[in-house]
Write a structure and sequence with these properties.
This protein is mostly beta strands. It has one helix at 12-21; strands at 31-32, 34-35, 39-42, 47-49, 53-55, 77-80, 93-112, 121-129, 140-145, 153-160, 166-177, 181-192, 199-200. The protein is elongated, with a radius of gyration of 21 Å.
Amino acid sequence: GKIVYGGDGSASTHAATILPIHNGANVWIRSQAAPIPFTYTYATQPPGCCGGFYDDPGNTIMNDGVKPSSITRSNCVEYQNHGPNSNRYQYQPTIDLGADYAVTSLELSYVAHPAPNKYAPEKVVVSCRSALSASAAAPVRVESTFSGLSNYGGHTVRVDLAQCGRVRYITLERIEPIQGGTNIGELAVLGCQSSPRYCAST
């Protein structure tokens, strides 16, 4: 054969035989997906309620690196999907990675407690694209459903974004709670600068 495997430092006499014939070899390196820094803006800015809870005036809650374990005035935004005014509570933040990346997943950290009617997410809908202009290609839409999640404390769920390929923008189109509301306290996008083919998810 004319394929040389180099994993774990493997070489052997096979490599010594094949490489001189072809003046060396092409090398492919698989990258490990890692968190990508980002900024974000909302389609509708969360207004908050109840004396300062659930707003995000500086657009910093979702990317401050803190995954909350309890609800405070400044660590999460509430999403709802029940009742006639449910769309008022879908703020659709768009993540800007600053450049195109091969994305593998989106992590959403939520914080729940049944007493104030805050529960785990049941469904998350995401779209991803390389540009926001009207002439850009249609976004890729990804829908993930969850079951059996804890309704106490802080937890993280993952949305598989492998089908998005290389993108710059990711929009959280919809979060549907099991009931009541879902409070999101942190987002994380994992991916690589390399081709999607060589980006391994964690």
